[in-house]
Every structure is written in C-alpha cells, then in structure tokens.
C-alpha cells in the first residue's frame, strides 16, 4: 500500500491555483499510454485495508498520512482513466491535512477517529474552493466558498479528502450514465454500470481509490450502487446527517451517507458525520451512538422481517438465491425470521417519481445563469437568458424530471398527481411503522438485478426507474438502512442485501449487516 | 389521472415555459413519449382509495408509533432562534456570478420596449 520510494513527494507544481486537478483532462493526455498498460485484463478491484488497521499504522508512526495519500493518488492516476470515478482531485488540501496528521503523530497530539484516512466526496456535496459540478454542465466552473457540514466533520475527524466523485447529473439516475462528464464504469466488470446516482462513490471504494466515501441517497442512490459494486452503503434516517452543502434534488427525501468496504467502517463514518446541525432545519438533535460499537453486538434474538412483496415477479432468480442464503445465515446466527406485510410497495415507484420530480422542479429553479455557472450568450431579455442557460446547461434526464414535476404541480393536476402521491406516501410510511412494531429489522434484496450493462437501459426512462423498486420505499418513509454484500451471481457480479430499520435505529441495521457480512466470509 | 396518453405537444410546450426550459424541436417528440409513458405508469395510484388520508410532505409529520421517536428525541420541528447571524461573505460569493459589479448580479433587460 505504501508508495514506491521514488514517488513521494507529489509534484505540487502541477496543481491548479485552488488545489484542484482536473483528472478528466489529465486522463485524456495519458490515454494512449494507459490503454496499452490496461490490456488485456486489468484488475480494478482491490479491498482497502480496514480503518482499524490503517489507523493503527498511523498512530504507531509506521504509516505516514502523507505517504498514504500519495499512494492513493498514484493508484488513482493508474485506474481512474478507465473508471472515470474522480471528476477532480483536491491534492493541495489533502496533502496539507495529511501533513497536519503526521505532525500531530510526531508531537503525540490526540488524533481524530479518521486521522489520515483517504476519503472521497460525491460531487453533489460542496468543498470550499473545489469545482462543484453535480455532474452537470450548468455548474461548470462553480467553486463554492464553503464546505458541506458532512465534509467539514470528516476533516475535523482527521480524514484526508482526496477529491470529488462522479455521479448522475443532480443525482438523477440509477447508473451514473447521466453525468455530463461521462459514465463511471463498474470496477468488477468495466462493461457494466456501477449503479447510481452515487456510482463514483461506490466504484471508488470497490477499486480502492478511497478507503471510504460520501454519497447521497434520494431514492436509492447510495444503496443500489453499493449493491452493484459489492461494497457497504448506508442510508441514514432522514435528518440524521445534515444536508447543509448538499446540492438539493428532492429536499424531503435527500440524505447524505457513507460507503465503505466493510460494515464497521461504514458505521464509524456515520458516527462522524451524523448529528444536529443548526444549518439544516430538518436535522435531528437526537444523540449519536457509537455505531461501530453497536455493530459489534450479537444478533441472537433479533426479529427479522421478510416482506413477500420484495421477492415477487421481476426479481432475478440468482439474486433471490443469494438473498435467501443471507436470510438462512441470519437464522443460523439466532435471529427469528418472520414474514411482514408491506402491501403498498408496488405503488412506491410512482409515488417517488411524482414527489421527487415535483421537489426537483422547485429546487432546480435556482440554476438560471444569474448567480453561478455559465450564462448563455446573446440573450436580449432576462426570460430568454434563463431559458437559454437552462437549455444549454441541463441534460435530458434532468429536463425530463423538471417537466414531469412541473406538470404534476401545475394547475388542474396538483390534486390528481402531487397530493395523491403524498397521501400514498403516508400509507407507505405507516405500513413500515406497523411492521417495525413487530420486528427489529427488515431484509430485502437491494435491487432486482445485479449490475446491468452500460447503455442497456438508457433508451427507456421507465425501465431505469424500475431499478429503484426496492429502495424508494425507505426513502419515502424516512427510515434508515444498510446495504451489505450478500453473495454473487454465477457471473461473479455482487448482490446486495438491504437491511432496513426504524427511524433512528441505525444500530439495528448495522448489527444485522455485520452478521450477514460475517456469514459471507466463511 | 385516467390511464390514457393525453399529454399533447401543446402541454409539453406550456410546461416547458412554466419551467423556463426550452426544448429543441427534435427533443419534443421523445419528451412527449416519455412523459406519457411515465404518467400512464403512475396512473395505477388511482387503484388506491385515499379518501381522508392526510398528505405526508415531510417524515417529521409522522405522528404515531415509531415516528414519534423521531420527533421526541428530536423536536424536528423546533425552529432556531430568530436572530441575525453573518452569512457568506459577499467578496467570496460574487466572483462566482457570470456577470457582476461586485455588489449586484447583472442581468439582461427585464422589460422589453
């Protein structure tokens, strides 16, 4: 893991004025060289060391945080051109932070729980001075003057922020093919999608281009890519993690959450970023448990609900086999497996796509060529300037969702679409509350299939929406969940199990996920 | 919300105008097709009788059962004190604008003559 002797230190001279290197441009330059190196069967998958291992090395002084960061940048240079995971690297800031950690170690100062840990940030969360694109052309060139709360909390805990990760434009998509900066490829099979919208965040962990990452989840955008890339992804309870500095998609659904290579590390990450923030009015002041310690607790005696609705038509048989094996492992570990009924599940995708697009149509009104991002040239009037800037800046899926949302909110259709969707949202949420009176956690497949091929669903928006069929319900209900690797298909593609728990009961989800993970290792 | 494709080109154009979007002529047919397919699909919500169900806009409105945990620990609806606090520095914010004089955002004419 440590860099070759000749590599360190990094050349600071190659960095832009704000310390952000445009890796996409560098990738172009290196293409010829790397293509020959990539063939025939370049392996992109690598498991990062655990936080505990890495931190022990840093505390003992056997691993220098600066060298660790440099080794990650070296690996990124090799692997990123094909995977397209990072949109930009924040080397100057990362190395400054790493040097601070090394200094603290040398002086014997106290160290944060993430001291020296290389972490990546989905490019819908802002970092001061670093280009924030949200995967869209409409924000090209925008350098926000502040840090998202989740970002500053990671840094305060000692994390080294490597750069910004690719995603679907404004987090709208299930494959990361909607990024204006090109699709991300799945490290396990580069002809396949990594899932979305946080495809860069999931792929970065799967390829060990970061030890852990942050993503955002509005309808499944953390859980589904975690499942497709064989990593752990966390959907915290709505309000558990501040949304301050998250570029808004659908505010009543948006969550910020971590990815990691194992459950315990994901739990540690959540403990760092969770907690009340006065900058987010929906942020919960409930105390934050030590989730990693919670995840260590045995699962014996926990009641696990299995909803038949998630094992019905449309579920890939190989995914079913893998999830059923995971459920059998939980039973063997001493859990009580019980059926639960979630009969309104089939309405969740329609409800989600009405509510999310309605909120998006309002949230995305702010991108108009006035305060940030490019402005369309040569518009005679203000109205023309808005229209042209938005026409040039937004991609097809974003326009489709803005139009759908505007339609659902427009006069004459509001009651039929938006209000109806909100009513069904309550039915869905209450259904979960009733189920969680009977069980501690609910387990389902995270997605109906393993990772699909690039281009397979881009022509059919509705088919793409149905990739979210098992994840949107928890989004609408505001409950929490963890996706954990749970076997693979015959072709070797990972399958993820979704472990859902009641509001603010992340501890239960982590415990169950740990048991599934432990069973998988045997 | 009946199950029949009835969004027209005129509807798409009207909604685009409301949303300050301008579709290229070649984009309109695909958008029309997609919107109708999606609206047909969401029409299945009509199968559910939701008479008397209070719409849920935010999960903090979930009053009963485990939802109350969220409010209780929480007071999700508690507002902060109404005191002025400094916001982002203008000198940091204005340079991000496409056109500015440092104090204001400059935009094209609002009123046509």
Describe the structure.
Chain A has about 525 residues and is of the alpha/beta class. Chain A has 17 helices and eleven strands. Chain A has an eleven-stranded mixed sheet, with helices on both faces. In chain A, helix 10 crosses helix 17. Chain A is globular, with a radius of gyration of 22 Å. With about 110 residues, chain B is mainly alpha-helical. Chain B has a domain of about 50 residues: Glu-tRNAGln amidotransferase C subunit, N-terminal domain (Histone, subunit A, Orthogonal Bundle). Chain B is about 30% helix and about 0% strand. Chain B contains four helices and no strands. About 10% of the residues of chain B have low confidence. Classes of the chains: A alpha/beta (about 525), B mainly alpha (about 110).
Spell out the key features of this protein.
heterodimer; A: 522 residues; alpha/beta; Amidase signature (AS) enzymes; 11-stranded mixed beta sheet; 40% helix; disordered N terminus; B: 113 residues; mainly alpha; Histone, subunit A; 0% strand
Short description:
The complex is a heterodimer of chains A (522) and B (113). Chain A has helices spanning 23-38, 51-60, 65-83, 91-107, 149-156, 199-206, 223-229, 263-273, 291-295, 317-332, 348-363, 382-393, 396-409, 414-438, 461-465, 472-477, 506-521; strands at residues 86-89, 118-122, 160-165, 212-217, 232-235, 255-260, 303-307, 336-340, 441-445, 480-488, 494-501.
